Amino acid sequence: MTDFQVPVWGYWLMGIGLAAFVATLIIYVRRNRGFKRPLFASPYVLWLVVFTVIPCLLVAYFSFTDWQGNFTLDNFKDFWDSNYTARKTMDPDEMQMYMDMGLTLEDLGLERGTININTLVFSLWMAFLCTAICLLLGYPAAHIMADREFKLGPTLVILFIVPMWMNFLLRTIAMMTLLEDNGVINNLLEWIGIGRQKLLNNTAAVQLGMVYNFLPFMVFPIYNVLNKMDYKLSEAAMDLGCDKWRTFYKVTLPLSVPGVVSGITMVFMPAVTTFYISRLLGGGKVQLFGDLIESKFLSTSLREWNVGSALSLIMMVLILISLGLLRKVDPEGEGGGIV
After folding, report:
1. How many Å apart are CA 122 and CA 114, to the nearest integer?
2. Is this model's pTM higher than 0.85 or not?
3. Which end of the chain is more exposed for a tag (fewer CB within 10 A), N or C?
4. Cβ partners under 8 Å of residue 75, min gap 6
């Protein structure tokens, strides 16, 4: 176990924040001569500061420092070149000796390593496919559930919500039971004469698990928007001569854009950062960016923890960009929420 510790200023920051919170609370009560409704939100504000704001600041701090606390950009250089540290720590005389022998950095395995970049690109591609599949499956489902003439719409909403009551890990393990060599699907394939297939420990299994877990996050924002839409607009369009497809293209689809953008954001970002799905359904053969970050923090090397913080910071920047996009397209949050 390493002796990796929070810097002293981190404890001071938490103490000052707590003291400022208590002082603000006292001043607020005295000025208002009692407790007002907004005061009951103060525990959430304290929770947000201690468990969200301060951890983010610590991640940023460790991203720009080495294990000794000195400022450095090497953690981000490690992201761009996974062999940067190995070259930097190698004895110059030893490297020169190899060079004199006619060996190159590629021969020594010290050329620019692209594992971090490749993993990020692969994760983005997997997240893109997951988002596209969820959109193709989720939009029709949301449209059907929001149709007032479809009597089973509320029932379908409940059926989408019920699996979310189950723990994320249990849902993924259930997928393993279905896809394993002696699982339900393979037994069915063998019974109908197709034969057993390799359904687990591959990229397709990971993609299926991602779609299964994140599909509700695409369906419900779109459903919210469609359910709130004034159906008189569609009726007016049809009265003016539009058929159902033209009404959908000219009226329904544009009005549902906030829900679509919200769903894309809510699916894409968890899909990029996920790691447990790839571990269980990929069998260690499929590595996503979340797996890479986890491996850094599970390392016994203190320096790897700083590199892991830099990778986490890069991921947080991607999340902020995504939220900024959502804010521009859906400024009032019409597509947000699950139900």
Report:
1. 12
2. no
3. N
4. 63, 64, 66, 306, 307, 309, 310
